[in-house]
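Batch job 17 of 40 flagged for manual review because the log was empty.
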Amino acid sequence: MSAKTYAARESEIERRWYVVDAADETLGRLASRIAHVLEGKHKPTYQPNLDSGDHVIVVNAKRIAVSANKRETKLYIRHSGYPRGLKQETLGDLLERRPEEVIRRAVKGMLPRTTLGVQQLRKLKVYAGTDHPHQAQRPEPLA
């Protein structure tokens, strides 16, 4: 007896919209929940080679919580490629300047480093305040 494995097609995937309130949530725990939904691992039709995930809207990004003294010690480092091109910024400085970027970078680090991961990251919408322009999609709260 041979059983056939169900394989979902791209046209059969149903995408939903979820909204997450980041106020007083721990950064890493929130990012891992978001990455799980963006990849589609919460669905029974999950396939690692298909983008079966849902859209996630994050509001109140500026009110995210971090543990211990990470605001002063966690560094975001990049290099331009030129001599003396090293630029580094603390988590606290980045939260003041661009709070959306903190959550986006945390989630990006938890997604695959492929074109599939880039496609999944495009479904993440992060906003510093409580308002977002996606009311027409009727997002539901992420449990």
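Reviewer: the log was empty due to a logging misconfiguration, but the result itself is present. The first strand starts at residue 17 and ends at 21. Unflagging and moving on to job 18.
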